[in-house]
Amino acid sequence: MRYQNVELHNVEAVVPLEGGGVRLSRVPEPVRLALNPAARDVRAYHTCGCEIRFVLKGEEARLTLRKGAGPAVSKSGQAEVYFGPFQGVYPWAAVHVDGQGSEIVVRRPGNLEHLQQLARDGGMGFDPAVVRIILPYDWIYELVSIEGDLLPPEPGQLPAQRLLCYGSSITHGGDSVRPAGTYAMRTARRLGMDLIHLGFAGSAHMEDAMALYIASRGDWHLAVVEMGINVIGDWEEERFERQVRRFLTMLSTGLRDRRVLCTDLFLCRHDLEGQEKAARFRGIVRSAAEALGHPGVVYVPGTELLPDASLLSADLVHPSAEGHEAIAARLGERLRRG
């Protein structure tokens, strides 16, 4: 969405805050209000996959970000600055954002024309003239102020196609270390696509409202939906099967020539501890996808995308940074095959 003189990517609504600044929501308000409490009140405002994008007309831009109050995992988060497809150099490679507010000052690279030529020659999708401030993925981050002579990017300066990813904290980016390191972001980059990021940590409950919202969006070309890990502890198999079937049926409505890849639990502690429920959940997702009989809906088990325990973090649930990259490599290859 356009906000002032920038593009807020992966943002569908802004909420003005008392004392200044705005909170960013990744879904429209009617959708947010129809989600489970954790997704509705917290996760919808997490900024995973959100970017502030602009083209510098003047010499520099100054933006202030602030970490929102609440029981976050860490005291600060990491933002990154990219010039189109190119990661910024120090001090832009990693910018820490805390609750007091952090200013990011961005200046035009001295070698911009060379970067643009390389991007054109390599078919990289993003114009390096587009500054991308990639927001932290792990909590609520607020936009306090924007200063500078800026323009939102034009469509021709961005990738022509979009990948949409929906799922749990794993899709959200848990333990990926940096916002551009999530498997969703890395997969989009491998495919040369832009990313619509709908990871909902601990709250991917496959609601009807979410399915209808994703299906109604006409701006994505491929979608990945990851299902199961957030409900395996609380839902019985009958409830999971019912909701997966509803979710996939709604997603397939109006699919036309677009494709949806559905997956389930990546290798995790449930498997490593010998719990059979994980395998049964995977069977449910497989059966639901196959029962649709839709050529645009394909199933890939999560254990095919992340098959090795060495790619997990110490909680044996979330992939490590290396694990996110491994998922992206396998997922990108599978999506290219069709």
Automatic annotation (TrEMBL):
Residue stretches making up the SGNH hydrolase-type esterase domain: 165-326
SUPFAM superfamilies cross-referenced by the UniProt entry: SGNH hydrolase
Protein origin, superkingdom: Bacteria
Classification via InterPro entries: SGNH_hydro, SGNH_hydro_sf
Identification of the protein by name: SGNH hydrolase-type esterase domain-containing protein
Organism from which the protein derives: Paenibacillus mucilaginosus 3016
